[in-house]
What does this fold into?
Amino acid sequence: MSNEKYRIAVLGDQASVLGFKALGLDVYPAETVEAAQEILHRLAKSDTAIIYLTEQLAQGLEPEIARYKDNLTPAIILIPGKGGSLGIGMANVKKSVERAVGADIL
It folds into this structure.
């Protein structure tokens, strides 16, 4: 087994991600899609295994998220932002399950 150490990052607006710092996660505040895009690509090239991304920013980053979808790392997981859930994260989970199982079981 490898001794590599992977990191977990949280990317989103400052109000949504700041609390994750207390959990020991790497926090990357971004207020614009452009800033988030740059951070996302930088994290994907680093030793980051999981990136939690707010749904609000994910709306503007669909091509970038699709680019990493089939890669082992980073796993990009959508989370609700300060404004609540937009349902995008759950829709992605349903699509993944349907693709894996062959039917919508959720």
